[in-house]
Structure formats: structure tokens, C-alpha cells
Amino acid sequence: MALKCPKVQFTVVDIDSKRIAAWNSDHLPVYEAGLDDIVRARRGINLIFSTEIDNAIYDADIILIAINTPSMEKDNRLGAAADLRGIEQCMRRIAKVARHYKIIVEKSTVPCRTGDLISNILRQNSNPGVNFDVLSNPEFLSEGSAIRDLLYPDRVIIGGLDGTEGAQDVLKSIYSRWVPDDRIITMGLWSSELAKLASNALLAQRVSSINSISAVCEAVGADINEVSRGCGLDARIGSQFLQASVGFGGACFHKDIQSLIWLSESLGLHDVAEYWDQVLKMNESQMSRFVQRVINEVEGGLKDIRIAVLGFAFKSGTGDARNTPASHICNQLLRQGASLFIYDPKVPDEQIRNNLTVELDNRKPQFHICHDAYNAIAGSQVIVILTAWDEFQAVDWSEAHSQMIQPAYIFDGHRLLDASYLKQLGFHYASVGTHSKGRI
Ligand SMILES: NC(=O)c1ccc[n+]([C@@H]2O[C@H](COP(=O)([O-])OP(=O)(O)OC[C@H]3O[C@@H](n4cnc5c(N)ncnc54)[C@H](O)[C@@H]3O)[C@@H](O)[C@H]2O)c1
After folding, report:
1. HEC string of 244-292?
2. What is the dihedral sign for C-alpha 16, 20, 25, 30?
3. Does the annotation list 196 as a binding residue?
4. 252 is catalytic
5. d(Cα 253, Cα 247) in Å, to the nearest integer?
6. Ligand 1 pocket test: which of 252, 253, 256, 257 has the largest number of ligand atoms within 8 Å of its C-beta?
7. pLDDT one-digit tens code per residue, 409-429
8. Cβ–Cβ contacts within 10 Å for residue 438, how many?
9. What is the DSSP letter of 192?
10. Which of 94, 325, 337, 396 is the most exposed place for a label (fewest CB within 10 A)?
């Protein structure tokens, strides 16, 4: 936004002063291709990172709320409510500080009717004569391609209640500076909130659907890539998001489906809740099935076997390891007594460590964080590929094979590598969605 609207002043504030310090440094707190250049170009000009929250609230005409909305602890029901305490706290602060009309924009992903909660808090706590309009403008960017998604969005949704048309036009006028008008759509507030939850649920459902078919492929000797192609060429289905893998992860899919399940349950829509719960169950089963395959196929079991883990981020293009399948898989491998040598080009060591929480009787889990793929591979007997980083395709696999304990195994969770070449080199190569003996 700061890049595309050079005459608009953007102030980013956060209660976490370390994060703001990082945004003001050469080491930004998130990795995203192209982000550094944009921040460097606009920082200090029309893009300020600050901890002076009250000043920013006081001065602003529009406030975008992008606070985290994690899942609350589960009780015995299906799903989990989104934790909106951060948003509530923030609304109280805005109400207290504001002295003139402001547009409040929900950018965070929130359950349907959060707009009501926000409006009520603002109305009940505001200074006399100060009014607010509340809009929903969910963020659809995907980590790993965030800058491209922001510059060329498929759509921008602006939701508002009747009477907020003026505010919607103001927000629209910001996006119009780089997004074609026919891609900016307005709708009701509740529809906009639900469209975001539903989009994530549908995307995750597609991953679980193709992963469920990958299980069938492995059992019958079909090839998931061939099946995906055969399905994706149907224009009604389409080819995107049909790649089988170890499962979905990240900060959003899981929590947003949990939130949708919770919402459905609260509305008494039990069948709807059960339906979406199955998408999560399929995801967990895909990760466990991958581990089980490693256990079944490595002769002699995994105890004291050295495994090179290539990739820890929940997807390539990001350093984010929140809810990553790698965490689930590595913890299960550690439980089997394997020792792990983990390499990811972007995930900070601390994030990897924080994810490996398995507790073992009488021994410490054995894992080491490596800073290149060859360090992880040399001396290992097994390789598991858990993130589809391009650089793993560029590994010299002949050299890698010669440095491994034999027989050497590769379990490819993303079908990233050339199966026939690796088999020729002497690897036992298994990938998601194919039988280990290849196509039958
Ligand atoms: N990460 C994504 O790719 C993505 C994409 C679309 C939508 N979203 C949604 O955007 C929201 C934020 O996601 P995220 O991944 O950026 O979360 P995050 O945890 O990385 O960042 C949230 C930030 O909000 C700050 N914060 C919390 N309470 C605050 C308060 N009261 N005042 C000021 N700052 C406060 C935190 O310190 C943190 O830095 C979530 O609702 C998420 O579902 C995220």
C-alpha cells in the first residue's frame, strides 16, 4: 500500500517492540521475496514503524487491524473459537484515544459477526461526538507469494453494513490506485467476513481431497501426478492446488477451519461442523501415513538411524514454521528414536527448536540444525523432504549418495525430485502418491 500510494502516510504500530525494531533494521521479522526492497524504498518516507500506538491512533483517518486471531483452547466440542481478545483490547484503546471520526478496517481473519463486537465496543467506550464506521477487508495473500498477491490480487473484498457506503468508497479509492475496478467488490459485512473463512476452508479441503487420493495411489500403484493431471484438465476442476504433499500447515488454514467448525457448531449445524472437521482429520492422517511409510520401508526400524530433514517451513518461499507439517513429522520420527539433522534455508533456528517439543522417556530427543543441505545429508542414511524448496533439486545427488550410509533412502513429501534418476543412482526412493515399486 505504501508503495502504491506514495502520498498516503502509513504508520505500522505493534505492541511487540522487538518486532518494530526488526522492521526498522536490515533484518526484517518475516522473509518474503521482494519485501526487503519495498520496505527499504518507502521506510522513513511514507512508511513508519513505531511503538507509539496512541499517537498513531490519534492521527489516523483509517485504521487497519491486522492483529493475530489464534485458536482458543478447545473444550469438548468440535473446532475452536478464534481468540479475539487482542482485537477487543485494541478497540478499547482506539475508543479511548480517538478524538475524530475514523474508519476501522478488519484485516485480520475473524468469525462472522465480529463487526458487531467491534462496533459495540467502540460505541460504548468512545469520547462524545466521535463516530466510527467498521468495514471488513479480509487479506487473501498467500505466504511465499505475498508481494505478487498484494500487487496483483484476484479480488479485493470490502464488506460493510448499510450506511457505510461512504467509508467503503474511501477504502476503495486507496485500492483503485493499483487494482482494476472490476476486481474490487463490495458486499455485506457478514458475507465478507465469511468469504475469507470459506476461502481458506475450500483451499484446505482441496489439499485434503488430493491427499486422500494419494493414499489410494500408493496402495494400488497409480501415480498421483497422473491422476491430478487427469482431473485438473477438466475446466470445472482446474489444475491449481492439486499437488499431493505431506499436508497443509501455516498460521491460517488450521485455525480458520477450526473457527468455521466452531461457528457451525454454535449455530447448531452439526453436520456442517463434522464435514469440515474431516478436512483436518485427513491432514493429520496424511502426515502420520508419511511417517508410517518411513518406518515400514527402512529396514530394521528407525532407532538410532540418522535422518536428514530437508525443509522445515510450512511451504517454500517463506520462513514461517507455524503449524508446519515438518513439526508433526519430526516429532514422530524423534519418538521412533531417530536422530535428525535438519536444514531449511529460511526458517530461523529458534523456530525449529520451539517446534520440536516431543518428550521421550529417559533420553533427550536427538536433533541438530544444519546450515546447508550437504551437512545434513553427509553421514545420514535417510532423507525426508518436507518443504518444496527449489534448491533441493539442485543438490548433486550422486555426490550426496556417496556420502550416505547404505542402503540410502529418500522419502519425498512433495514429489520434488526425479524418481528414475535417483533410483538409477541406487537410492531407495519413495514419494507421496506413488507405490515404492513405481507405477503398477
Ligand atoms: N499470515 C498470513 O499469511 C495471513 C494471510 C491472510 C490473513 N491473515 C490474518 O491476519 C491476521 C494476522 O496474522 P499474522 O500471521 O500477521 O499474525 P502475527 O502473529 O504474525 O502478527 C500479529 C501482530 O499483531 C500484534 N498485536 C497483537 N495484539 C496487538 C494489539 N492489541 N495492538 C497492537 N498490536 C498487536 C502482535 O504483536 C503481532 O506482531 C490473522 O487474523 C490472520 O489469520 C494472515
Report:
1. CCCCCCCCCHHHHHHHHHHHHHHCCCHHHHHHHHHHHHHHHHHHHHHHH
2. positive
3. yes
4. yes
5. 11
6. 252
7. 999 999 999 999 999 999 999
8. 12
9. H
10. 396
What burial letters (b/e) apply to 289-298, b meaning 16+ CB within 10 Å? Answer: bbbebbeeeb
pLDDT reading at 199 higher than 70: yes
DSSP 24-58: TSSS-SS--TTHHHHHHHHBTTTEEEES-HHHHHH
Q: Are 372 and 296 in contact (CB under 8 A)?
A: no
**Rounded mean pLDDT of 190-196?**
97
Could you give the domains of the chain?
52-187 (3.40.50.720), 280-431 (3.40.50.720)
Strands 339-343 and 367-369: parallel
Task: Give tens-digit pLDDT for 123-155.
Answer: 999 999 999 999 999 999 999 999 999 999 999
Q: Which atom of ligand 1 is nearest to the CA of 142?
A: 3
Report the DSSP pairing between strands 132-136 and 156-160: antiparallel
Mean pLDDT of 311-336: 97
DSSP secondary structure of 305-335: -EEEEE--SSSTT----TT-HHHHHHHHHHH
Structure confidence by residue, pLDDT tens digits, 169-188: 999 999 999 999 999 999 99
Are 411 and 292 contacting, i.e. CB atoms less than 8 angstroms apart? no
Say if residue 103's pLDDT is above 80. Answer: yes
289 annotated among ligand-binding-site residues: no
- Amino acid type, 124: Q
Residue 372, Cβ neighbours under 10 Å: how many? 11
